[in-house]
Amino acid sequence: MDKELVFITVIGKDRKGIVATISGFLYKNDINIVDISQRVMTDGYFVMTTMVDVKDAGIPMEEMAKQLDAIGDELGMKIQVQHENLFKMMHRV
Amino acid sequence: MSVTLEEIYETAGMILYQNLDIRTTTLGVNLKDCVDSDFEKFKENVYTRISSLAGRLVVEAKKLERKYGVPIVNKRISITPVSLIMETHCAAEKFLGMAQTLDRAARDAGIDFIGGFGALVQKGMTRSDRMLIDVLPEVLSKTERVCSFLNVGSTVAGLNLDAVNLLGAMLKRTAEISENAVGCAKFVVFANAPEDNPFMAGAFHGVGEGDVALNIGISGPGVVKSVVEKNRDCDLTKLSEIIKRTVFKITRAGELIGRELAAALDIPFGIVDISLASTTAAGDSVANVMEAFGIEKIGAHGSTLAVALLMNAVKKGGAMASGNVGGLSGTFIPVSEDSGMIAAVEAGALGLDKLEALTAVCSVGLDMFAIPGDVPEETINAIIADELVIGIINNKTTGVRVIPVPGKKAGDRVVFGGLLGTAPVMAVNPFSAKEFMRRGGRLPAPITSMRN
Fold it and tell me: Which domains does chain B have, with CATH numbers?
């Protein structure tokens, strides 16, 4: 069915509770996690990305991005919210 | 997942650490149908047209910033060249009145610059064109957001030296009556000016355009520098390939956001300008890309090769990424807006002569550089003519944005602040071309223009 996929990317120093915080926020706002992946990159940064479907989300994407910014500040990490189309355009010919 | 973690991380890194952004979204607006015999009504038509379109541009651009997490730094308007719409209102006070209306419309809509207060005079000047040039010092010093351009030459028309010969005096007057000479930073003189350039100060909505068009300028010197730094030892072919791939990616981001923004505004999408545009922010310098190539300071011998390599790779990567590449599309090397360029001038690595050579292979020209205020007007005219003839003969755009700063001498500094940066005052050749420039007239078009 039609999905509207958005990537939530968390970048910073690894710490406890990142996945719990993000998934708790998503659950609270009725946003379904489609896929999740995390790794420590070669330059030492911890990166976690969560692909979510915002088709039936309880809040608009702009509001979600704003609230995740605040969560990022609390965690001391950078959180980016980006629609899937951006990655498809940039990384696929 | 449909994309890999590495790809997501690469994109995030470009935005978070390498200053990737959409440098400008510029809405081109036709004003020809706003003309009215009643000048008050004419100004009201112009104000309403601009403020309604600009207001929507700002709102929709903000929504897309959130959707894609890519900053859209500037939202701007370009308009029909003003000399064309003022032909039936050809009086100095009316030109100034129109400039103030444009300034007010831009300010009220939250637009930082509005471009197009200019004229196309590559072959000759109408009475309105001449009036516009005469009133420019007042316009540039008394308005905050109005940008001006003149196109004084082209590969098919040659160079209008009579128009060039008006500019030295005009610029010196503008510098004298505007604070810190900053009025001159809002004026560009071109040869072969593109009609869909989204970048200020030279943007205008050309006469071949429709009622509205949305043009996008991307950025990304920081992104290119980062990949070059990771490839210190590769040869020029490989280096070119690496840059092409990176520019492809950043141009695709511009293409996506531009098309969505145009669709949201329900107007035609114009072009993506793939120029690398520097800012004074740390890591956002085109000169630093050259340094990552292995040039000690831009201006050193080898710099022209380096700029040519960069330009070529940027164009090839961008051309593959967008169906509508346009505008200037290359690489800007403004002095005051690029921390690496400023450092090179202050270290003695880069002078005006080498800068002129670099412009033969870059996209625009001698941009945002300051010279001493006592440089004779004929010498300023000659600097402009030299630069523009490089474009005319080589069938490319060239432009000049020069700031003669009163009371300053070579080696001094002038701080404009904000986007316009800080300019080291550059030395100018003290010998004169006065007698040559005095001849006036028009340089005939080059033989390469005879293609029919």
Answer: 28-191 (3.20.70.20), 216-444 (3.20.70.20)
